[in-house]
Amino acid sequence: SKQAGRNRVTFFSAEMGALAKARDLVEVELKRAIENREFTLHFQPRFCFKTGTVISVEALVRWEHPKRGLIMPAEFISICEETGMIEDLGQLILEMACMKAISLHQEGRDIQISLNISPRQFEDNRLLKSLETFSRHPDFPRGKVELEITENVLIGDHELIAKKLEAISDMGYQIAIDDFGTGYSNLSYISRFPLNCLKIDQSFIAQLPKSGPIISLILTLAEQINATIVAEGVETREHFEWLRNHKCDQAQGYFLSHPVDAEELPHVIETLNSG
Length: 275
Ligand code: C2E
Ligand code: CA
Ligand code: CA
Ligand code: CA
Known about the structure:
binds ligand C2E, Bifunctional diguanylate cyclase/phosphodiesterase, binds calcium ion, 275 residues, eight-stranded mixed β-barrel, single chain, alpha/beta
């Protein structure tokens, strides 16, 4: 009936009002959290099939909320992206990740760290300056810090984007395309930009073996452009074996290890390296 319809509308808008309010609260809290540096990095190993060892780890941000405990990025990254707070948070993450790479290098550990750069952070002018500062650190491990960007970062002025990526690459950073195959479908960028790595989105791995043909295609493409290929979301032995048999370079996923904190990381790496 008309009445019920009207009630439904009222119900939904009340709910949306509550949601908007909750979001405002999170926004205020996030601002404070960034000022207080309430964030930490967890690390997920990337296993290399050829060496049988962990040669890289992905840094994944966590919010250490004083009352709520650990909060996952799904709850705050998009809010940070939409409000622009990702620029400050991204700077914080970049600093934590580069300092981690430097300390690993100082400990004599030959491990790459990759970190996620959001589209808005990629446009932030401070990014290049910070990257340059860290690259000049005497213990900066050249070639051992990788930036993961998504395909939507590459939409826009290709000449400008190419210049930026080349500058980043010249400073000694690696560049990976994250969630490959899910974004921008115009593949012409592939040969235009300096790309070191393609990370096949986990949705393709989840659909193995049905998605085999498309994964094979991506593997061939990566080989053509001399890029490392990483499979994300490797959850089962079947996924792992399929990828090994098809000459994928690296695997990342729950089958190997969940993301762990900095304290647990050495043990997890040791276990994977000796297993
Ligand atoms: P992503 O960059 O694609 O990261 C992979 C996500 O998949 C991580 O979730 C990871 O824990 C999860 N994952 C790993 N292995 C498996 C698996 O076998 N199966 C499944 N189903 N999932 C797996 P997380 O840490 O919750 O991060 C979610 C997303 O949040 C990331 O997706 C990334 O887009 C964003 N994010 C995380 N950390 C950062 C950061 O430091 N900066 C920025 N800008 N974004 C970040
Ligand atoms: Ca990523
Ligand atoms: Ca990904
Ligand atoms: Ca993703």
